[in-house]
## 1
Amino acid sequence: MSDPAREARLRARVVELARAQDPYAHIFAGKEFRRDYVAARTVAWSALFKDIRDTTSRVLEIGSKEGRSALFWLEFFASAHLTCVDLFNDEDAGRFDRNLAAYGPRLRKIVGTSIKALGSLREENAVFDFIYVDGSHQRDDVMIDCLGAWRLLRPGGVMLMDDYTWKPENPDSERVAPAVDIFLAWHDDAEVILRSHQVAVRKRPA
Ligand SMILES: C[S@@+](CC[C@H](N)C(=O)[O-])C[C@H]1O[C@@H](n2cnc3c(N)ncnc32)[C@H](O)[C@@H]1O
């Protein structure tokens, strides 16, 4: 039987161990965070995205919270411009602003729902080399985010989706995986380059 308190303790321990070994820990030093969804990923991300590091100049992130993953993209893709979309409607928003204050010219913040932001970006004919989908975890929202983001990704670009294995006990409508699975079934132009807790796909040239 699942024991939520024990699971939370284990998760906290994993994050603590990951932080102790994180070669990118210096990026986050002195910043304000309440949660860490990133420390356990930086090693895998830097290996997986090594080849696109120098050619990625336009990055979109759906779901930025306090800015931890945003900071990573800005440091890892050192010459990239980052567009962050989030509701930014609670105290995370202040932390995001303070954590990212030094990156002003390389950062665009879009406040609001991803469905609205993706529509506006499409109207602007925006194009991205790399997109991180980590906003709402409700199936229908994830579906909208994946489809909307895919249209903004250039051929050869990479899209990364978080939390594929999140909460398997939830009903389908409250999980990420069913949306990602449908997205992959619809899109044979998506070459899967990672399928674990996160799924990464490269857009095949037309
Ligand atoms: C898991 S957090 C993102 C964590 C962040 N990527 C990181 O690693 O530091 C999810 C974020 O998605 C945002 N979010 C949820 N639903 C959204 C929606 N419909 N449109 C835009 N953002 C949304 C939340 O406000 C929250 O900040």
Note: The longest strand covers residues 153-161.
## 2
Amino acid sequence: MKCKYCKKIFEDDADVVLNYFYHVDTSHYDSLTDNEKIMHDVRKKMIKSKTDYEVHKKTTGDSDLIFNSKNSDI
Ligand SMILES: [Zn+2]
């Protein structure tokens, strides 16, 4: 897909929506209309809470792994 605000092309992979979102966030936030900014901020919060959850899950999983491997050494 192509950026709405510049000539940058995004490859159509699983992360294209997120990549485009972050690109707009860093490069074109000032070009958004007031309404679009509101929508953008809502999505940003949703993405952030999802990312926090996944990071938390990963951290927990990793510490479980360390715990388990420590245990199996004994
Ligand atoms: Zn752009």
Note: The CA atoms of residues 10 and 19 lie 8 Å apart.
